[in-house]
Amino acid sequence: MSQTVDRALSILPLLAEGPADLGQVADRLGVHKSTALRLLRTLHEHGLVYRQSDQRYRLGARLFALAQQAAENLDVREIAHPHLVELNEKCGHTVHLAVHEESEVLYIDKVESRYPVRMYSRIGKPVAITVAAVAKLLLADLPEPERRALAEKLDYPLYTSRSTPNATAFLAELAKVGEQGWATDLGGHEESINCVAAPIRGADGRLVAAMSVSAPNVVVTAEELLTLLPLVRRTADAISREYSGTAIPQ
């Protein structure tokens, strides 16, 4: 039975390359045409493949509908939360998860620091979009015309002397973040708070969320916080693998 399932599933990536006839499917699977036909008929009955008028097979509409439904029902917060808790237990600092919705970047999860001095933030609150590390990551992933249009519409409040002052500087920062694959906010929103962030990606490679670790200067210096970047990136990668369905089952 497992061999039959394996063969049937092997047909799908073949048809993802384009329509194929019975002989091509049989050759790819290394089976007789009668076996390939039986597998194709079963997949056809479930709407996963479709037989065209030229007798070639292609992927069926139900496969796309299932993929879309699965994507819509994925909850990145639910998947990410255990990883955020584990990261917090390792480093002790505040951990955030954020997403880009329309013109805002919002915190959707937070694990509090174990230290007495904590930063003020809450789930559902928009971040300071021109300086926050998570915002830089999420906006850097936008197509260049969208980035430019958004940057030109934004206001640039000078929260501190390190705040992003204008659209030109913001676009330059986004380009840098996009190239390096991580972001920081070193006193750009609050003089005493530093932050490092890493991206969470879906199966198509696009960002679905960003996560960060933040801490005040009185707990760790900016330089000390930056040493956590490899750990933050590993955590984000683990969430990405689980979210996109590529995590290895334990």
From TrEMBL:
<dbReference type="InterPro" id="IPR036388">
    <property type="entry name" value="WH-like_DNA-bd_sf"/>
</dbReference>
<feature type="domain" description="HTH iclR-type">
    <location>
        <begin position="2"/>
        <end position="61"/>
    </location>
</feature>
<dbReference type="InterPro" id="IPR036390">
    <property type="entry name" value="WH_DNA-bd_sf"/>
</dbReference>
<dbReference type="Pfam" id="PF09339">
    <property type="entry name" value="HTH_IclR"/>
</dbReference>
<dbReference type="InterPro" id="IPR014757">
    <property type="entry name" value="Tscrpt_reg_IclR_C"/>
</dbReference>
<dbReference type="InterPro" id="IPR005471">
    <property type="entry name" value="Tscrpt_reg_IclR_N"/>
</dbReference>
<dbReference type="InterPro" id="IPR029016">
    <property type="entry name" value="GAF-like_dom_sf"/>
</dbReference>
<protein>
    <submittedName>
        <fullName>IclR family transcriptional regulator</fullName>
    </submittedName>
</protein>
<dbReference type="Pfam" id="PF01614">
    <property type="entry name" value="IclR_C"/>
</dbReference>
<keyword id="KW-0238">DNA-binding</keyword>
<dbReference type="InterPro" id="IPR050707">
    <property type="entry name" value="HTH_MetabolicPath_Reg"/>
</dbReference>
<keyword id="KW-0805">Transcription regulation</keyword>
<keyword id="KW-0804">Transcription</keyword>
<feature type="domain" description="IclR-ED">
    <location>
        <begin position="62"/>
        <end position="245"/>
    </location>
</feature>
